[in-house]
Specification:
401 residues; eight-stranded mixed beta sheet; four-stranded antiparallel beta sheet; 13 helices; 20 strands; binds aspartic acid; binds magnesium ion
Length: 401
Amino acid sequence: MALIVQKYGGTSVGDVDRIRNVAKRVLKTQAAGHQVVVVVSAMSGETNRLVDLANKISKDPDGREYDQLVSTGEQVTIALLALAIRDLGGQARSFLGHQVRITTDSAFSKARIKSIDASVIHDDLAKNHVVVVAGFQGIDPEGNITTLGRGGSDTTAVALAAALKADCEIYTDVDGVYTADPRVVPNAKKLDKISYEEMLELASLGAKVLQIRSVEMAMKYKVPLWVKTSFEEVEGTVVTTEDKDMEKIVVSGVSADKNEAKIAVRRLADRPGIASQLFESLAGANINVDMIIQNVSEDGFTDLTFTIPKTDLKNALRLAESVGKEIGAGKVESADNIAKVSIVGVGMRSHSGVAAKMFTTLAQEKINIQMISTSEIKISVVVDDKQADAAVKALHKAFIG
Ligand code: ASP
Ligand code: MG
């Protein structure tokens, strides 16, 4: 008898019929001889509605109250799902994050899980109950409710799977991980399997199938992570440890991320401590910097360009300007009409000429490259956001078909 954690996203619990459908699936899994822990998101659109309400009331909502508010969507769906399971003759109990002691740090709206007390869950499972847990939320050491960042229910599910040593199935509205967004590239292919590392790059690159932290956690604890749909009976994609087959494929995915903005700080003195001062101040404000590019200096001065989430642009710009002033830098410029387009594949480690082919493909489409960054298994370029889809199409054709 295996223990399985299943996570159902907002569209899977979007209305009463769909919740009933989830209840049936859960009971089917249980009838097949498994113990089941279910994590659910809020009904689709609900978290956005709550976020809007907060923003209507306040220009800069207090973090604690914001989390107190936006965590409520999941309280509705856990109770409804437990009711639906009971209505079908099953046994189920629902739990909020704090009721199964999902403790986090105090970084409101992007809290990290520190620990989970699995004993409550084990007690219920032993009584043959389905355990339904609210995704996206936890509690900090002071007893404040926290949330884990948008899409955070995935991370709740993986954290529970790690704590319970279970497999993890993520049910979403797509039936697996694709080589590109099928809305942009209609002939994108579904992958049977993908490595944690590739998925991490693709998730962070804006392939919105899984929250990035959930993949990090799955990799750390080696939790096999299945991406499936709750609407059909089809095989999904498993995110797992890298193997020999995966190395043969040079590029496994092409993605575009339109959620970043860039900031350029001009004429920085080329001496120790300058980058430190700038990025320490961004780190202090909990701003996640992604690409960072600094050129070799000329006449003792250099330029630094970096990207950050669009939502942090105002804040980051203010900090960059104030640090810039302190250290006597030149102009600070920003743009948010950018997209980061990337190709990802573990096979890149052992193949040469991949970057050249990428740049040539973009040149043929007359797409200008504003920034470039690479890792062992990824090449990313920043382009004008209006050209992102064209870039993804061309790169998919060139590398995948
Ligand atoms: N309900 C939260 C959100 O919309 C968490 C989740 O769905 O994973 O971001
Ligand atoms: Mg999601």
